[in-house]
Amino acid sequence: MSGQSQYTPKSDFAKWLERRLPILGFVYDSFVAYPTPKNLNYMWTFGAILSFMLVAQIVTGIVLAMHYTPETTLAFDSVEKIMRDVNWGWVLRYAHANGASMFFLAVYIHISRGLYYGSYKEPREVLWILGVFIFMIMMATGFLGYVLPWGQMSFWAATVITNLFSALPVVGPSITTWLLGDYAVGNATLNRFFALHYLLPFIIVAVVALHVWALHVTGQNNPAGVEVKNVEKETVPFTPYATMKDGFAIGVFLVLYAWMVFFVPNYLGHPDNYIEANPLVTPPHIVPEWYFLPFYAILRAIPSKLLGVIALFASILILAALPWLDTSKVKSGSYRPQFRKAYWVFIAACVGLGYLGSQPAEGVFLWCARILTFYYFFHFLFILPWLSRNEKTEPEPESIEAAVNGRGVSHA
Amino acid sequence: MNTKADSSESRPEPSRRDILYVATGAAAAVAVGGVVWPLIAQMNPDASTRALASTEVDLAAVPAGQIITVKWRGKPVFVRHRTADEIKAAEGVDLKELPDPQPDNARVKKPEWLVVVGVCTHLGCIPTGKEGEFNGWFCPCHGSTYDVSGRIRSGPAPSNLEVPDYAFLTDTKIKIG
Ligand code: HEM
Ligand code: FES
Q1: Domain A34-404: which topology?
Q2: pLDDT for res B1
Q3: ipTM (interface predicted TM)
Q4: A225 phi/psi in degrees, rounded to 5
């Protein structure tokens, strides 16, 4: 993990370079010799899948930017031109738009994995918090990108989201005007959103580097939730074991991604976004992209503007506090029978909130959203701290080796 | 100001060097502020946007019962020619029932004409006219309802539809902004 490099340069050039910039050794130690617990399951391949998706978004995004025009009278047409005239433009745009969805699908699985196996616990708190940052920057990037095609949904999403800041007392409205560069969403807004949409993915790359650095300091968690005791016996080198497995998982993930791009490219989109933005007409049902729905449901569940906005931000930020809310010494959900139930109820609540976020905020939908919003916070603020103190956990395996040999059943 | 002097028991006179430190620090802070200011302020509406200040509206073409939408500062403004029944309904409301209490006569210059910014005070969607329980406006985004005076009656919006600055130029013409 850290310390003396495992790398011995062979060629003269490698020796020459290593003495000046030990980059080959760094790569070797991080992605070849790096010891990975031997009991990792496929949930541990999503980090690689996410890295792949980040690169895919950057590559497709940069080529789209070569044809896109961030100006209100031209933006919509430039995207239509990408779809009809630009060579292979349709595939590039569908790959980018669906790539965002696949990216979020992967990040939700990746986060859920961490929630189940207690990957946020000591000593991985910083690693976890960096992950929460990445998630937030991803959300900002996805939102900014969705505004660029300048359809009706783009325009009204931009309006609603920037108005979240107007909920702040006193300074709110001036902050919204400052963000928009106008008194309503307009050309200044579109232009700066494009600049930021281009910038943020590179900030994500930088935070991912910190995230991986922190990972390589603490080592990976694993389905048994006990730390590596014997590197020799309990780990296998990253290459070929993890590289092969990650490569295979990326391949399977690509099948789904390609299916989306080629067979149902508009399934997750919204038809209203093929109508050019009209600042004087709000579409009757404005719904955000699927990956924002649970948070949107929380925003709408609360009948006060300021409190709704606070709940929205709190529902994301509370993840960062998780290491101090769930203090149970047992990491893996596999050895926590009650936690395990609470976990699945929580996942169901999130999916339920997602469904409610797509429905009109009235009547029974609204009440269900209120109950689930309450439950969302109740899970973090009461159930987890309570279980940490009172749950009777099952015995953890003594070691990864013991878990693999079947003593202490692992659900891996 | 300088920690060295504070921590020693007898406070010696600040030296020349202390004064130089503080002066340099202060100058650097002012310089950083001066550099950051334009970087932040460039994001506010530019001069051409601020200049689009006012819009004139001819009311003669709007029959009683109709609502028209005009654009002012990039935002819609609703001009509603209210019927006698609607005026009565708006004036008859008990202020205690209102989340943001305001009498109707504080929101209009002439009772027949209601002029409000057509932007929901929740998160900025445009409410649709003559819908919702109070026959004023209904916001499709998160379900806020407004009455025929543009006052918030139910839903997440915190306040009444904003009344812009406007003036009657003649009996049938107003200038907004
Ligand atoms: C974190 C990575 C990224 C995510 C999650 C993301 C997400 C999105 C989304 C959701 C859209 C709207 C797609 C649609 O409905 O049409 C979009 C559009 C766009 N993005 Fe990205 N993006 C990312 C990276 C980038 C990068 C690095 C660039 C480089 C400049 C870029 C350039 C564009 C352009 C030009 C558009 C408008 C064309 C279009 O709508 O297809 N994106 N992005
Ligand atoms: S924007 Fe009108 S109710 Fe939310």
Answers
A1: Cytochrome Bc1 Complex; Chain C (1.20.810)
A2: 46
A3: 0.77
A4: 75, 10
Looking from the CA of residue B156, the nearest atom of ligand 2 is 3
Query: Which amino acid is located at B47 in the chain?
Result: A
Q: What is the pLDDT of residues A304-323, one digit of tens each?
A: 889 999 999 999 999 999 99
Q: Is pLDDT of A410 > 50?
A: no
- What would the two tokens of residue A116 be? 């189940």
Under a CB-based contact definition with an 8 Å cutoff, are residues A211 and A127 in contact? Answer: yes
**Full DSSP string of B19-72:** HHHHHHHHHHHHHHHHHHHHHHHTTS--HHHHH---EEEE-TT--TT-EEEEEE
Amino acid at residue number A238: F
CB B174 within 8 A of CB B160: no
> Is the link from the previous residue into A169 a cis peptide, with omega within 30 of 0?
no
Which residue, chain included where needed, has tokens 């003649």?
B170
Ligand 1 center–CA A303 separation, angstroms? 33
* Strand duo B173-176 + B55-58: pairing: antiparallel
Cβ-proximal residues to A311 (8 Å cutoff; 6+ apart), any chain: A298, A299, A301, A302, A373, A377
| For chain A, domain boundaries | 1-33, 34-404
Confidence of residue B52 (pLDDT cuts 50, 70, 90): confident
Give the N- to C-terminal CA distance of chain A in Å, as an integer.
Answer: 24
Amino acid at A206: A
Pocket of ligand 2 (CB under 6 A): B 120, 122-125, 139, 141-144, 155-157
Q: Cite the active site residues of B.
A: 142
The amino acid at residue A208 is: V
Q: pLDDT for A153-181, tens place per residue?
A: 999 999 999 998 988 888 998 999 999 99
Q: Do B73 and A286 touch (CB under 8 A)?
A: no
What is the pLDDT, as a whole number, of residue B5? 47
Mean pLDDT over each residue of chain A, to the nearest integer: 94
Tokens 């490099």, residue located: A5
The span from the CA of A37 to the CA of A224, in Å, is: 10
With H, G, I as helix, E, B as strand and everything else as coil, classify residue B79.
Answer: strand
- Per-residue pLDDT band for A54 (boundaries 50, 70, 90) equals very high
Q: What is the whole-number distance in angstroms between the Cα of residue A160 and the centre of ligand 2?
A: 8
**Does A32 score more than 90 pLDDT?**
yes
Of the candidates A81, A278, A275, A274, the one whose C-alpha atom is nearest the C-alpha of residue A186 is: A278
**pLDDT tens per residue across span A336-350:** 999 999 999 999 999
CB contact under 8 A, A182 and B141: no
**With 60 as the cut, is the pLDDT of residue A411 above it?**
no
Q: Cα(A90)–Cα(A82) distance, rounded to whole angstroms?
A: 6
Please work out, in degrees rounded to the nearest 5, the angle formed at the alpha carbon of residue B32 by the alpha carbons of B31 and B37: 100
Residue A305 corresponds to which tokens in the numbers above? 């503007």
